[in-house]
């Protein structure tokens, strides 16, 4: 008999020597990477990580796990033994930082507290040990300020105002000019602020400081800004955050100390070189907050060549180890380099494509992995227009090109106004001295972000790059006055709130007024106007070309276009479309043909109806001839008339006014009166669930017959002209197989007549849209009469959810997104659990009946990156989307085919 063993207790704390980079789920990104750097033998200050599992227990129960305090105590004792000093002891105290670290990077969204362990007594010991009284009091004032704001919830502006007053009294502009006596007074002022605002004294017990800071980091996972950031970046809400407790090293010990952020490649362009920011005599928060302007990392070679050379070696080690762009935080303490963090760095869309191809060329990754390093969303960003270099512009400043793009909008100076104006339809540029996490709402709402302080590693730059927002940072020439809602540009010109400005995130230039834009070189490449390999080819185009070639070789899903005319079809073909997945014939009935449709709707007799249809037939036929010519040799799926007939008639209110005016003036109005009667006759309370789609074909004799005949005759004409038309006829809004059988029987008869009359054999496939829940649930029956299914996910989403898209997006979707009911609109990304389960079930049932059933999707989800992956997994044959989205769908189809399990690249 085997011996019963007690279940092993959960382990909630890991020393940095115990983890590795693959434990991000448990240790968070920061903790896992600190452990990995420790394993690599890099200079990492000792410390330990409290796991995400501990955070989850706390968030679910409101209490920390029962064993957590004992585990933390054991690891703290081990850390104290390693460092040879105790937390907060009065002589030579051990100080620690408490920092958040979730699985996915959330820059600035959660909480950090530095210098824990300082108190009225230990600050004296720190001063004596360091031989620098100013440093000790500077560290203490930072602790009281960060602890007060982060842990005790004191308004951070109160501390900033007190600091500004202290500098003003001393007649200095930067905090490094404050002396020890000034900082000592500031600590007293800060503690008074804490007492007044928090209702308690600043804690003097170092262990209480640490425990409260750990709890505050746990709580910050559910802070408003963290939840908003997760929704924006589609990060799951149930992951929790780890907490890293790390022995402090100090960059604020004088000119031979400092702190910085470095990138192994330029996160804005992808180019190799020395990129980053360094700040002497500072702690890490000073760099990312942007409150003091940094110097370029290359300057460190002059300031401290030994540390610089060591840093360059470490950066090379980390990039080769992670096989990717690394974002690194470091501190130099009196000439000694310490590594505080590394992670796979956020990058702009252009940098992502360049870096992926560079790493392939260097042999660090293969093509399959390269495809996981880029996304369809990034490719879409690269297809946006950019400023016209030939335009007459008034440049007023130049900052740091932090996140590329061309953004034009009205200047606003706070987050609230940015959100308010954006919701009213205004395009805005958020202008700040520097942003902080509280500005996230405004950053999301704005077209672009402009700051007068900070560099490529400031909060504004990092968050903007992650969101794909245009950003210019550190435009020092601008004097931003947020209280008066204005900024002054060189020469004295004042930009008031509401004035138009333009910012170029690729060059860092800032312009007055609206600058015209020109097409992206990537679009010119897809249009065939720029050729990779040519002398004038854009380097970015070369990278995009190669990644698209990788994707096309790997993907299984074919990509078609939603196109209704030859012009759109030809453009789609240039963009790589492999056919048309949706031609909406109703778009052919507008313009100068509307009168013919009105005559059809108003027809009182069979003869009048046939006369109208006879007039429409040659026009429809010519439409299809042009379409087949543009897409020769590729499938063209043509949807028969779908929308309610009232959409082809004038608006009921407008028509009523016209009739009333004609009657009052005693003018002839017989036709308007007939139209008004028809509008009333066709009026439905909910027309999207009324007489439309296949129902029209069954109720209005000859309508679908005319369209099928036009398709068949156009195909016969093209075949006679040695073309290769591949038409597919799609019946919309089918809910039962009997509807499809009746329409199909008539269509087959018409096709046979055209074949006999032209002596041409036509191979016209007949299928249906699956856009009603009943169609999805009875797909096995419907497949008996259908050669293909095309999922109309727009209508399927409406009917599954009971949403009227035209109404709900404007009325309550914003509230649903804010409350977390949706992570993203179900009209933007397919609802996998609801709509998606019907798609999968219908696909499986249809193929059980007809194994060779062709399956596609033609709703807007066909061009959505995340949805493309779902359709690949569901076994569909193709997706169809607007011409502009075709490259995105091609890329994502390749990524879906090569997706490795558990890839963390975002």
Largest sheet: 8 strands, mixed
Q: What is the global morphology?
A: elongated
Write down the domain tally: 4
Overall pLDDT score: 89
Broad structural category: alpha/beta
How far the N terminus sits from the C terminus, by CA atoms, comes to 50 Å
What's the helix count? 36
User: Quick one: CATH superfamily of the largest domain?
Assistant: Phosphoenolpyruvate-binding domains
* Neighbour order of strands in the largest sheet: 12-22-21-14-15-16-17-13
CATH architecture of the largest domain: Alpha-Beta Barrel
CATH topology grouping of the largest domain: TIM Barrel
Protein name: Pyruvate, phosphate dikinase
Family: Belongs to the PEP-utilizing enzyme family.
EC number: 2.7.9.1
Cofactor: Mg(2+)
Please provide a written account of the structure.
The protein has 906 residues and is of the alpha/beta class. It has four domains: 11-245, 2-Layer Sandwich (Dna Ligase, domain 1); 256-346, ATP-grasp fold, B domain (D-amino Acid Aminotransferase, Chain A, domain 1); 385-516, Glucose Oxidase, domain 1, CATH 3.50.30; 554-589 and 603-643 and 693-895, Alpha-Beta Barrel (TIM Barrel), CATH 3.20.20. It contains 36 helices and 31 strands. The strands form six sheets. The protein has an eight-stranded mixed β-sheet with strand order 12-22-21-14-15-16-17-13. An eight-stranded parallel beta barrel has the order 24-25-26-27-28-29-30-31, surrounded by six helices. The protein has a five-stranded antiparallel β-sheet with strand order 1-2-5-3-4. The longest helix has 25 residues, at 606-630. It is elongated and about 105 Å long. The two termini are 50 Å apart.
């Amino acid at each position: 008999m085997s011996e019963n063993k007690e279940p092993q207790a959960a382990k909630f704390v890991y020393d940095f020597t115990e983890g590795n980079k693959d434990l991000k789920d448990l240790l968070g990104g920061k903790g896992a990477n600190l452990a990995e750097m420790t394993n690599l033998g890099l200079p990492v200050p000792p410390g330990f990580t409290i796991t995400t599992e501990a955070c989850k227990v706390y968030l679910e129960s409101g209490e920390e796990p029962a064993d957590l305090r004992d585990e933390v105590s054991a690891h703290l004792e081990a850390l104290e033994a390693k460092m040879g000093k105790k937390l907060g002891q009065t002589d030579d105290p051990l100080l620690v930082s408490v920092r958040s670290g979730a699985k996915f990077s959330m820059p600035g969204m959660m909480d950090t507290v530095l210098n824990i362990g300082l108190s009225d007594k230990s600050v004296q010991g720190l001063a004596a040990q360091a031989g620098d009284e100013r440093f000790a009091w500077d560290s203490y004032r930072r602790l009281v300020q960060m602890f007060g704001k982060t842990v005790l919830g004191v308004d951070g502006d109160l501390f900033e105002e007190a600091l500004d007053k202290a500098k003003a009294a001393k007649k200095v502009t930067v905090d490094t000019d404050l002396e020890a006596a000034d900082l000592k007074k500031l600590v007293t002022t800060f503690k008074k602020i804490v007492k007044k605002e928090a209702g308690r004294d600043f804690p003097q017990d170092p262990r209480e400081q640490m425990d409260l800071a750990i709890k505050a980091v746990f709580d910050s996972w559910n802070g408003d800004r963290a939840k908003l950031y997760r929704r924006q970046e589609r990060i799951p809400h149930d992951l929790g955050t780890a907490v890293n407790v790390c022995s402090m090293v100090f960059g604020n010990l004088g000119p031979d100390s400092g702190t910085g952020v470095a990138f192994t490649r330029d996160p804005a362009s992808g180019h190799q070189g020395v990129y980053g920011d360094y700040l002497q005599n500072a702690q890490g928060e000073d760099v990312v907050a942007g409150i003091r302007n940094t110097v370029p990392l290359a300057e460190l070679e002059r300031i401290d060549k030994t540390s610089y050379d060591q840093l360059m070696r470490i950066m090379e080690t980390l990039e080769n180890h992670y096989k990717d762009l690394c974002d690194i935080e470091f501190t130099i303490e009196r000439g000694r380099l310490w590594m505080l963090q590394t992670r796979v760095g956020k990058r702009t869309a252009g940098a992502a494509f360049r870096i992926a191809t560079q790493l392939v060329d260097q042999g660090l990754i293969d093509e399959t992995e390269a495809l996981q390093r880029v996304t369809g969303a990034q490719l879409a960003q690269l297809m946006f227009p950019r400023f016209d270099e030939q335009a007459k512009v008034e440049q007023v400043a130049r900052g740091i090109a932090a996140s590329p793009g061309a953004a034009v909008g009205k200047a606003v100076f706070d987050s609230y106004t940015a959100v308010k104006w954006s919701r009213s339809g205004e395009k805005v540029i958020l202008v700040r001295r520097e942003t902080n996490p509280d500005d996230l709402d405004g950053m999301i709402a704005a077209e672009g972000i402009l700051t007068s302080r900070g560099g490529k590693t400031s909060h504004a730059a990092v968050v903007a790059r992650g969101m794909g927002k245009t950003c210019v940072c550190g435009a020092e020439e601008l004097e931003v006055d947020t209280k008066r809602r204005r900024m002054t540009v060189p020469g004295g010109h004042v930009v008031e709130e509401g004035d138009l400005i333009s910012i170029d995130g690729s060059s860092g230039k800032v312009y007055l007024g609206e600058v015209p834009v020109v097409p992206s070189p990537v679009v010119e490449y897809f249009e065939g106007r720029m050729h990779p390999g040519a002398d004038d080819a854009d380097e970015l185009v070369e990278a995009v070309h190669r990644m698209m070639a990788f994707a096309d070789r790997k993907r299984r899903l074919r990509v078609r276009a939603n196109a209704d005319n030859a012009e759109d079809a030809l453009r789609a073909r240039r963009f790589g479309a492999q056919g048309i997945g949706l031609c909406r014939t109703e778009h052919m009935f507008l313009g100068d043909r509307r009168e013919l449709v009105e005559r059809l709707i108003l027809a009182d007799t069979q003869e009048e109806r046939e006369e109208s249809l006879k007039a429409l037939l040659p026009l429809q036929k010519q439409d299809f001839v042009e379409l087949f010519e543009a897409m020769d040799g590729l499938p063209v799926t043509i949807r028969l008339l779908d929308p309610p007939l009232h959409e082809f008639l004038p608006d009921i209110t407008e028509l009523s006014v016209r009739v009333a005016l004609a009657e009052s003036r005693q003018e002839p109005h017989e036709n308007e009166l007939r139209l008004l009667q028809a509008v009333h006759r066709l009026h439905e309370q909910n027309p999207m669930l009324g007489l439309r789609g296949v129902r029209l074909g069954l109720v209005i004799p000859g309508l679908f017959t005319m369209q099928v005949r036009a398709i068949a005759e156009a195909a016969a004409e093209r075949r006679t002209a040695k073309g290769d038309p591949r038409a597919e006829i799609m019946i919309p809004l089918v809910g039962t197989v009997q509807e499809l059988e009746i329409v199909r029987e008539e269509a087959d008869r018409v096709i046979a007549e055209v074949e006999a009359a032209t002596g041409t054999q036509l191979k016209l496939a007949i299928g249906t849209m699956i856009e009603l829940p009943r169609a999805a649930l009875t797909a096995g029956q419907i497949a008996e009469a259908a050669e293909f299914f095309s999922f109309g996910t727009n209508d399927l989403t409406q009917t599954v959810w009971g949403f009227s898209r035209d109404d709900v997006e404007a009325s309550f979707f914003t509230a649903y997104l804010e409350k977390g009911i949706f992570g993203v609109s179900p009209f933007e990304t397919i609802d996998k659990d609801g709509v998606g389960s019907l798609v999968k079930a219908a696909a499986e049932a249809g193929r059980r009946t007809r194994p060779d059933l062709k399956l596609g999707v033609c709703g807007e989800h066909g061009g959505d990156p995340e949805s493309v992956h779902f359709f690949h997994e569901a076994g569909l044959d193709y997706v169809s989307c607007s011409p502009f989205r075709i490259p995105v769908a091609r890329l994502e189809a390749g990524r879906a085919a090569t997706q490795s399990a558990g890839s963390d690249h975002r």
